[in-house]
Task: structure prediction
Amino acid sequence: MIFKKKPIVAFPPKDFYRLDHKMYVATDCIILGYDSNNLKLLLFQRNLEPFKGEWSLIGTFVHLDESLEEASERVLEQTTGLTNIFMEQTFTYGGLKRDPGYRCVSIVRYALIRLDEHDTKLAKEYHAKWFSLDELPNMILDHQQMINDALEILREKAKKQSIGFELLPKKFTLPQFRRLYESIYQKEIDPRNFRKKVLSLDILTKLEEKDKSNSKKGAFLYTFNALKYGKNFASKAGLDF
Amino acid sequence: MIFKKKPIVAFPPKDFYRLDHKMYVATDCIILGYDSNNLKLLLFQRNLEPFKGEWSLIGTFVHLDESLEEASERVLEQTTGLTNIFMEQTFTYGGLKRDPGYRCVSIVRYALIRLDEHDTKLAKEYHAKWFSLDELPNMILDHQQMINDALEILREKAKKQSIGFELLPKKFTLPQFRRLYESIYQKEIDPRNFRKKVLSLDILTKLEEKDKSNSKKGAFLYTFNALKYGKNFASKAGLDF
DNA sequence: TATAATAAATGTAATATTTACATTTAATAA
DNA sequence: TTATTAAATGTAAATATTACATTTATTATA
Result:
C-alpha cells in the first residue's frame, strides 16, 4: 500500500512514535458549589508567572503515572480536601495558541461539591475565592470558554439528573432546591410547578424540621432518598423546566 | 505560602515544564454514515504492528503545528476525501494502560457524512470497511467504549438537531428519515407520529419527485430547507421520540 | 386488463405533560 | 393584636405525546 499523503496512526511507520509529537497534557477543574441561592465557582489567583495575579481555574499537568481522572481528583482534593466527588468531563481544549510558549492540551472536568463540606483553610492557602456566575472576573487563556461550555453541559445534565443531590446540603428546603435550578437554568421557575414536578418524582423524604433562616413561617426540610432516587428518576421528563 | 502537598499548575515552579510530563496526544475519529436504512461506521483494518490485522477507528497523532480539530479533519479528509463536515468532540480517553508501551491520550470526535459523497477508492486504500452498528467486529484498545459513548452523545444531539441534515442524501424520503432516527434511537417510531412531528417543525421542502426504489407506490422526496431550519428548529421538543 | 401485492400516506381520540395563575397559612416581630 | 413575610397549595387551559387502522398509488403478474 502506498501512502498518497502523510501516513496516519492506524498504520504507524516505526519512526512515528517520535518525541516531537509529545505535548503537555493538563487538566483544568471547574469547581461548582451552591450557596445562598447562587451557583458559585471556585477560582484561583495565580501567585507566580506567567499570569501572576490573574484569575484562573485550578489545573495541573497530568503525570505519566496517573489517569486523567486521578489528576483532576488530585487537584480537587488538594484545593478543597474533598474526595469521592461527582466529576464529569466536558471538553478538551487544544488550540495551537491557547497557551503561550508551549503546546499544551487541557482536559476539563467539572466538579459539584457541597460548599459547607469543603476545607476553607485550603482554599485560602491556594488563593482561591468563590464567585457568583454573574460576577466572574477576567480569566486567563480560554478559561471563560471552558466555563461557558461546562455550564451548558451542566444544564443538560440537570434535566436528567438531580444535580441537587451533589450541590445541596444533606438537608434542604424546596425553595432552596428551586433556586438552585433557577440559577442553573438562569430563569425563574414557578414555585407551584416546581414543587409539583419534583414531588412527583418521589425521590425526596420530607422531615419534620423546618429551616427558618429565610422566613418567619419556615420551610420544611427534605433529604434525598438515594434508594428511591435510583428507582424513580428514570422518568423521561426528569427536571426540565 | 507553603505547599503541603505536591504543587499544582496554577502556581508552577520553574522546573515544572519538564519533558517527563509530555505525552503522545492522538485523536480518533468516529466516522458515521447512513445507508440502506442503517447507521454505519467506518472501521480500519490495521496493516502494521501493533495490532496488525485488527479493526480500529482511524486516528492520528496530533502534530505540534495543528489544532485538535485540524488533526481530526486531516484524518477525515485523508480517508474519505471530505472536508467541511459536521464533527463534534465526545470525550478524551487517557487511562494509564489504554495503549501498551507508551502513554497516549486520545481526543475523540465523531463525524457525520453522506455515504454517497465519500471517496470509496480512498477507503479501499486505507483498508476501511463500513459496518452496521449491530455487527461491529472486535476492536483494539478502548475503541468500542469510544463508540458507545459517541452513540449516546449522538442520540442526545439527534433530539435537538436534525442529524438528517448531515447524514441523508440531499433528497430523501420521510420513511428514509424515519428509519435513520429508528437506527439512532434503536427503536421503532410510529410512521404517523414521526411524520406529524417532523412536518410540524416546518424545515422541509416537499418535491414533486418520488423515489420508487423501495415501493411500487413510491415515496415523495424532500430536501432540508436550511433557511427554515435555522429559523424553526428552536422548538423545545425537537425530534425526541 | 383485472387483480394481487406492497409500502406510502393519512387522522383522530385518549392520555400525559406543561404552563399560567392567586390565595391561604404559619410564624415572627412590631 | 396586627403587620409582615415567605411558604404552601390547586386547578383549568393549552400543548405534546401516544396508540392505533384504513386508504392510496403504483407495479407486477395472472
Residues 42 and 130 of chain A are 4 Å apart (CA to CA).
